[in-house]
Amino acid sequence: MGGTPALPVLDTVTLAVCQHVADRLESEAADLAATMTTAVVNEIPEYTTAAAPGQRQIVFEHSLDHVYAVVRAVRTWSLPAGPELAFVRERAALRATQHVPLSALLHSYRLGHRTVWERLVQLLAGQDNILDASLALTTLTLSYTELISGVLAEGYVERQRQLLVQIDRDQRDFLEDVLRGTFERQVDSPRLTSTFALVPGADFLVLVVHACPTESGPHAGDSLTRAAETLKRHFALGVAQPFVVVRHAEIISIAPVARARPAAIAHLTRQALAELEQHAGERWVAGVSTVCAGLAEVARGYQEARLAADSAPAGGGVYALLERRVSDYLVERADGTAVRMVPPAARRLFDSPYPDDQVLVRTLLTYASADMAVAATADQLSIHPNTVSYRLRKLSRLLDRDVSTFSSLVEVVTWARIIDQARAKP
């Protein structure tokens, strides 16, 4: 903020008139403060809805402080500075904490200026040599209002910044308590769950988002913040109050599913990641858990979401567990033991580079996807149905399993998928 604006130099006559006005203003301070209070409460909706007796008294007392500040400014013919402006900063901080919009707060100060000026006009009436005094007092009151409006805005923004920092800190601490399973033992938990709109017994999805594995190194803090804000903005379309936190090198969200179905959450996540790739050139992966019944299950959901994120497409994308088939999930996580459980003959066939073997495998998988219908399999492969039957009999001999039966077909196709998955892994 710049220096305090200079006021015009007054001659002796004008100064005497202004001093007289200051005396009158001080004697009517309580009445003027009441008039200011009425104007604010009646004309600003944010104050009208909060015009309980206690709130009205607070507005009155602050108005009275301003009347006395104007009186001091006229008597000393100088604008307040330093500690004299503390009461303005304190009021700005209070209104920011109460979430009164800054526009409404500045409007209340403009109303105060209007009310003071109207009273000054009344006090000047009937006096001699009032032209110069009127111009001088107009300059003072305008300068005073401009000065305190600037101080007010600075105090309001600073308090807002402090509140945002505190909210961010509360979110991080609350998330850590939830992931440790200790949130119910925290004294502040009821307030925080209310603040973040996370009803302890509601249903939730947990999301974990991190940089695409193909990116060169982890994203910097500004990228994480940008991604978190983008995710939060998209979630706001389906979640009343998105809970999104940057934690280490990942972004975590606890999303209530009361309003937004799981499929909608996954869709909004995809939109957010697509925007990041399009506008920032950043690729991210996201994992979405199964439904968590209450905050007590969020720790489990977090582990699910992390595993899901690790299974997301290598080039970036979303892996939502509830969109996957259980069989796909199990096959994707098949370990070395599962691979070794596949008979050697099947491993050789499914891993074979020879075209004849690959034809047999393709016939098997097409037959399974065609619900064991030979004619449909033949149509898809553009071959005769007898050829399909011949290949299936050959597969049955090679694998020692009758793939024309459902149970054997499921087992053999599972072998094929496990071997394919193992081949795809580093």
Question: How does this structure look, described?
Answer:
The protein has 426 residues and is α+β, with helices and mostly antiparallel strands. It has three domains: 12-163, Globin-like (Orthogonal Bundle), CATH 1.10.490; 197-324, Alpha-Beta Plaits (2-Layer Sandwich); 336-424, Arc Repressor Mutant, subunit A. It contains 18 helices and six strands. Strands 1, 2, 3, 4, 5 and 6 form a six-stranded mixed β-sheet that branches. It is rod-shaped, with a radius of gyration of 36 Å. The model has no long low-confidence stretch (mean pLDDT 89).
Report a brief summary of the structure.
With 426 residues, the chain is an alpha+beta fold.
Write a concise keyword list for the protein shown above.
single chain; alpha+beta; Globin-like; Alpha-Beta Plaits; Arc Repressor Mutant, subunit A; 3 domains; 18 helices; rod-shaped
